[in-house]
Amino acid sequence: MSLRYALLAILRVGALSGYDLQKQFSLSVGHVWHAPDSQIYPELRKMEQEGLVEAEEQTRGERGRRRLYHVTDAGDRAFLDWMAAPLDYQRVRDPAHLRAAYLETTTPEAAREFLARHITVWSAELAQWEGELARIDALSNPMLVRRLAVTAEEDRERTIAYKRFAYEGLVERARGEIEWARRGLDLVDRVS
Amino acid sequence: MSLRYALLAILRVGALSGYDLQKQFSLSVGHVWHAPDSQIYPELRKMEQEGLVEAEEQTRGERGRRRLYHVTDAGDRAFLDWMAAPLDYQRVRDPAHLRAAYLETTTPEAAREFLARHITVWSAELAQWEGELARIDALSNPMLVRRLAVTAEEDRERTIAYKRFAYEGLVERARGEIEWARRGLDLVDRVS
DNA sequence: ATCTTCATGTAAATTGTTACATGATTTT
DNA sequence: AAAATCATGTAACAATTTACATGAAGAT
């Protein structure tokens, strides 16, 4: 149930419509927490009912409408409370390592394909996250720039440092997965 | 939906009751795919309906009963098909890295607590997995021994090697998380 | 005109979590 | 006799995924 906190994290920086939020989301927090728009719209409505956000109804042209969501004080508090509370860790659920433990039951070709795909998938993630790191350093990430604009001078360094720290962790994870799968490919060659 | 394949992987080695399966599960695949008994019993029933397993009804004492589940040919094929098919990767959903990206919004104390807990949680996982590696090497893991007993001589080395490979990956992951969180603690000290 | 982007959702199905519920058998 | 373990589930809820559905506004 971190979705609402991910949404609050973005909205706290400034009001957005569901649509814009969803785009910002996929460009920032979405790297760490995926959610499709069909989940975001209903969640915003629920958060509105619970008083965490307020919708400012706007019209667009003749009949177009949009709802601009603002974080309320209660929403702000909810976010800060969540940040200060212990994180609840979910149990591991890792289909790739599950399969890896049983690779002897399939053909070497299927095993190689699985590992090659693992490398492809994690390389894509790695590229994303390294790109994000570069954008953080170049201050060219729009979300980060928006955040820095509403951040007091003395807090800017920390803000950047933590964001960097988060992405570094993701980059290392991806590198680890890729190295592991490479070793797996060697292993397949060795034992088959 | 890897749960059923995790269950099949265990049952393929030999028939078990839901209760024993659940215990084996938590001692082996459970490290990679957690599932509570309240999920395992219904899943077994569903798999029975779909013809992947067959239940042998047994009595225990006067009125006690148990259902011993055997994998059917269809179940065996389903498992092998799954092993040979491309794995579907879920999108990232990582509350720890999500929170890490926003650590500047909380107090240094809360940030430290979060990171310390991250280290604790992953150290526990690490200990589990290193223990598992040691048990693989010592051939003292009961599940592995059962599996080797039904494995042809020439396939034993591969079986062990892949199991080792899977756990090595998990160990490295845990080490990475711990190192990352340690660096995070240094960072908190530096910026606050 | 038509294509893209803006804009907001509903519905159904699946998956997973938490709590509850029950009772037999074996061991101390 | 009590405690531990064996044994099997149901119920309610929460979270997630996938697919569907609709239409306005702005750009080419």
From TrEMBL, chains A, B:
Highest taxon listed in the record's lineage: Bacteria
InterPro entries xref list: Tscrpt_reg_PadR_N, WH-like_DNA-bd_sf, WH_DNA-bd_sf
Any Pfam family hit: PadR
Q: Which positions fall inside the Transcription regulator PadR N-terminal domain?
A: 7-79
PANTHER family attached here? TRANSCRIPTION REGULATOR, PADR-LIKE FAMILY, TRANSCRIPTIONAL REGULATOR YQJI
- Name-wise, this protein is PadR family transcriptional regulator
The record lists the organism as: Microbacterium invictum
Which classification does the entry list for the species? Answer: Bacteria, Bacillati, Actinomycetota, Actinomycetes, Micrococcales
